[in-house]
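Hey all, quick one. A colleague (J.T.) asked me to put the alpha-L-rhamnopyranose job into the tracker so the inputs and the structure tokens live in one place instead of scattered across chat threads. No bug as far as I know, just bookkeeping. Sequence used:
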Amino acid sequence: MLNIKYLLSALFSLTTSLAFAQYYTAEQQSEWLRKAEECKPYLKTTIHHPVQEVAIVKDGNAFQGFKAVKSGNINDLYVSSFKEKKTVVLDFGQHLVGKVSFKIKDIGSMQDAVLRFKVMFGEVPSDLGLPIEPFTGSLSRGWLQDFVCDVSYDGIFTFNRRITARYMKIEAVGTSIYSDFCFDNITFEATTSAGDSKTNLAAATPQIFRDIARVSENTLKGCMQGVFEDGPKRDQRLWMGDLYLQALANSASFKEYNLTKRCLYLLAGLSNPQNGLLYSNLVEYPTPHAQKTFFVDYALSFLLTLDDYYEATGDKETALELWPVANRQIQAVLGEAIDKNWLYSNTNYQFPGMMISMVFFDWAPSPLDTHAAMQGYLAYVMNRANTFAEKIGRSDDVKTYPATVKKIRAAGRKEYWDAKNKTIVSGKDRQSSYAGTSWAVIGGLISTDEARQAITNVMADKKAITPGTPYSTHFLIEAMLHCGMERDARRYVENYWGGMVRLGADTFWEYYIPDNQMFSSYNGYTLLNSYCHAWSCTPIYFIVNYPNVFQK
Ligand code: RAM
């Protein structure tokens, strides 16, 4: 009897301790959030006014079929009747993020009514050229920056949300027969947490790479707000995969390492304490909160960002404090999702305790099979975890990693390397894709020689799934550099990011498929696309870190 009682109580304490198993304590997480708060950046502001009146005109050669051409005299705005002119499109001369306001002034008799304006902002000319309706997008209609603005007797209107734009269209839709007016002021108070760029390119750097570097920096600058945002127009939040690439680009340009630190601590502070997993993204306002979705590849990228941060700063305290969080992601993937053959065989695996789990890698133009990519990625991350742990004196935690990496690589090679055709094939349909090939190369599933053949072959394969985003394209370049295809890497950067520059990009875009400019993963509704997007800012990283490839 006594024994049964003892057993029951032991069982009870075991189940309760499992139910309350915690990877991180509440105190730990609030301390991490406190540290994130300590690194909150000061936003620098600059004041801008429109520099040119433009007309948005159709042009089959322009990006998405629209371009902005100079028209009118900007000074008329401040002296001539806008009641008569009715509509204007203004160009601020550059892509900006911040607070916009305008003020009108009476010309002639006093203002005697509330005036109504329709205002629409655009990051690119096509934002103002394409029709909004019918709205068929899969994200909120609220992301579009079109407004009805009522201006009362004080003549002032301030937009109550942050604006991201280069162009502003104003239409007067409600005016009074008794009064007339023009503009007194139109102001864009731009904000960023980026300071001055520390980039110094060699004198011999070709102009196209200088331009690409400049646009990269502008992109990153626009996304550097209170956190590294993915897109200051949309989604205005920290996404872990974007963060990894932004942190790389930041190390090559602004070197605002406290912002990287802030983001790492925010992610850790808001992670799931019960299973130790990191959520894929978080929103900063009104108080930091995570969207409870789990992206396997994004969670693993935490280690990469932490390692890069440590390399750049030598901040061992942060490295040591966040190492268990980084390592937990690897442990969870190994424990949950790797099968007995050392394959990540089920990319639809749902991690317990998470609202949605997915393997991302790209928003590709056709459904992407992520098996090969995931296999290479895991090997790569574990290898980096191994060297990182050694650097910070935690090698005991990763003793098994080198042997595991070997097994993952061997299994990946066996499953995904088509030795006959010298290509990487992924999934049951043996899909060929740029993303799968890039990660098989970076993750060392195949040799350097094979890597070169695989990349050359996938690029020649008309049926292969191409990247939909500069995010996925980044890793293609990384793969090329990894296996000595420097000339190809240079050419690709020049054509791809340079292609956006030639199409007039001030900041790099969320999606760019050269022969499919209208691509959008938001149900094909391109107006939801972001045109200053975090994951596109990385050429600056390549240009600075590979001077022999890009600076001569
Ligand atoms: C979109 C954004 C973001 C990206 C996610 C996965 O919402 O483009 O940058 O990280 O997808």
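Adding what we noticed when we looked at it: Residues 230, 235, 239, 241-242, 360, 510, 534-535 surround alpha-L-rhamnopyranose (CB under 6 Å). The radius of gyration is 26 Å.
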